[in-house]
Amino acid sequence: MKTKEMVFAALFAAFIGVLGLIPPIPLGFIPVFITAQTLGVMLAGCFLGKKTGTISVFLFIVLVALGLPLLSGGRGGPSVFVAPSAGYFLSWPVAAFCIGYATERVWSTLKTWKMILINLVFGVVLVSLIGAPVMALITHTSVWAGLIGATAFLPGDCIKAVIASIIAIQLKAISPIEEKVNNT
Known about the structure:
The structure is a single chain. By secondary structure, the chain is an all-alpha fold. 68% of the residues lie in helices and 0% in strands. It is built from 9 helices and no strands. The two termini are 17 Å apart. It is a multi-pass membrane protein. The chain crosses the membrane at residues 30-48, 55-74, 86-103, 115-138, 144-169.
C-alpha cells in the first residue's frame, strides 16, 4: 500500500468520525438512530475505490472497537458490537467494498446517475439488508419487523446517496481511482 493510499484511508476514517459529531436523530419506534456517517461510508467507496475505501472503514471500526467514541452520539468500545446498531456499522466495510468495486468497473463511463444507483444499491439497500436482521436478532424481534422498521432510514439514506454521488463526481479528477485507471 502506498503512502498516499494510507493517508487517504486515515483521512476518510477521520471524516467518518467527524460525521459522528452530528447528533443522531432518534426515531422512537426503532432502537437505531439516523446518523450522517453512512454518507462517509458511501464517499469512501466511490471516491477511494474498493481497496482503500474498505481499509478506511475497517480502520474506523477498529478505532471504535478500541474505545474511541467515534460513533454518532459519542459511542465506542466493545459494547457497540452487541447494540442494536451493530449490524448497520459492521456492514459498512462490505458496503464500501461493493461501492468501490462497482465504481471502479464503470469509472471510464461514470455519470452521476450511475453513481447514485451504485450508492443506492450498496450504500442504502445492502446496509439495510445486513443491519436490519442483526438488529432484529439483538432485539429479539422478527426479521420482517426489523426490515419494515429500517424503511424509516430510506428517505435520509437516499439523500445521502445523492450527496455522496455528486461530491464523488465533482472530485473525480483527484480520486485515487483516476490515478489507478490512468496507470494501467
